[in-house]
Amino acid sequence: MLYISAIEKRFGARTVLSAVSLRIEAGEYIAIVGESGVGKSTLLNIVAGLEPADAGKVFFRDVDLETLDDDGRTLLRRDNFGFVFQAFHVLPHLTVEQNVGLPLLLRAFAPQEIKKRSLDILAAVGLAGRENGMPRELSGGELQRVAIARALVGEPKLVLADEPTGNLDQENARQVLALLREQVKARGAAGILVTHSETAAAACDRRYRLTGSGLVLL
Questions:
Q1: Which of 152, 174, 186, 201 is deepest in the core (most CB within 10 A)?
Q2: What fold is seen in the domain 2-217?
Q3: In which band, very low, low, confident or very high, does the pLDDT at 114 lie, cut at 50, 70 and 90?
Q4: For residue 169, what pLDDT band results from cuts at 50, 70 and 90?
């Protein structure tokens, strides 16, 4: 599904990523742990084609991202990737259903298909009956469930989660992490969770620590 080979990234004289290599298959859910500033988010941006590496390769389903132009990488992300962030990035002026269906709207799905998929995934994340609610009416844990639903509604092949529980209390964090793993697995996707929390990483299939010399299997 995803193969990363010897990725390096520098910002000026500072090397952020060095010799980062990883392989992940469909159905695997892995964690990358590390302290703030070690380059976890930068690595996800490179995997997603949002930021270029200074050296190394990223292959998604045998496609070398370096061979794609900006439009090609945008289409690849749109059609294959789902993103969950620490900040929920839920649009305040849209209903819950509209927020979840937005990725499908951008892909020109038929309105009835958007509605069906949105309601189905909202039920799967425990928000059945909340589709007409506004974001201001939801708790932090519910907002992150909306973000997970939006990430999964397009049936992505790869889900990238960047500190998805950083704004949640301990119990909501536990529930959201379990839900994210369950839904990624149920859909046969691959998932990468990046986090500073060993506790958050514990439920993943494999755990790696990001260091100055690459990824170390824990």
A1: 152
A2: Rossmann fold (3.40.50)
A3: very high
A4: confident
Report the C-alpha gap between 86 and 118 in whole angstroms. 22
Closest to 84 (Cα-Cα) out of 185, 2, 186, 194: 194
Q: For 62-130, what is the HEC assignment? A: CEEHHHCCHHHHHHHHHHHEEEEECCCCCCCCCCHHHHHHHHHHHCCCCHHHHHHHHHHHHHHCCCCCC
Question: Distances in Å between the alpha carbon of 122 and those of 99, 103, 202?
Answer: 11, 14, 26
Grade residue 168 by pLDDT with cuts at 50, 70 and 90.
confident
Alpha-carbon span 14 to 198, nearest angstrom: 26
CA 218 to chain centre: 21
Sign of the C-alpha dihedral computed for residues 105, 111, 113 and 117 taken in this order: positive
